[in-house]
Amino acid sequence: MEKTLPPIPVKRYFTIGEVGDLCGVKPHVLRYWEQEFTQLRPMKRRGNRRYYQHHEVLMIRRIRDLLYDQGFTISGARNKLQELVQAERDRRRSGEMPLEGMETMEIDQEEFDAAVKDSTSGTNGANHAKAIITDVMQLPNLRRELHEIRELLAFGH
Predict the structure, then answer these.
(1) Per-residue pLDDT tens over the stretch 13-57
(2) Are residues 59 and 14 in contact, defined by beta-carbon separation less than 8 angstroms?
(3) Nearest residue to 42 (alpha-carbon basis) of 28, 53, 26, 29
(4) Alpha carbons 38 and 106: distance in angstroms, whole number
(5) How many secondary structure helices (H) and strands (E) does the chain include?
(6) DSSP class per residue in 10-73
(7) Could you count the other beta carbons within 10 Å of the beta carbon of residue 33?
(8) pLDDT of 78-107, one tens digit each?
(9) Residue 127 belongs to domain spanning
(10) Secondary structure letter of residue 121 according to DSSP
(11) Which end of the chain is more exposed for a tag (fewer CB within 10 A), N or C?
(12) How many domains does the chain have?
């Protein structure tokens, strides 16, 4: 009875509601998981609003899979996540550098086409199209930043 999750849109930050929809869990569950999984640390802004980044959405999906689909307990999922993180570090140290998760950064072609079409008919559509194009243009920078973060994490532990 596995629910198919939607593709993760190309954007820098996601609200807790958006992450809940993308990962199939309620916001209160996400807040609870933050307490249980130390790797999950969304940025907090005014009013303690949470903003998640792409890698955190992937981690939440992994946690959800471990708990809901594979039947792990919170403690077991925490241990399994730690094993997965260590295995990833070992792969990096051995020279393997796959950037896990990049394949899930998809652009909805219909949404993109509609935004481009709407861009000729009003400010709202033009702004939406510009936002999508800006996000797409940021992908190389995002990839570089992710590589840099991964390197920092590899050498920091």
Answers:
(1) 999 999 999 999 999 999 999 999 988 999 999 888 999 999 999
(2) no
(3) 53
(4) 28
(5) 7, 3
(6) S-S-EEHHHHHHHHT--HHHHHHHHHH-TT---EEEGGGEEEE-HHHHHHHHHHHIIIIIS---
(7) 19
(8) 999 888 888 888 887 887 655 544 444 444
(9) 108-157
(10) S
(11) N
(12) 2
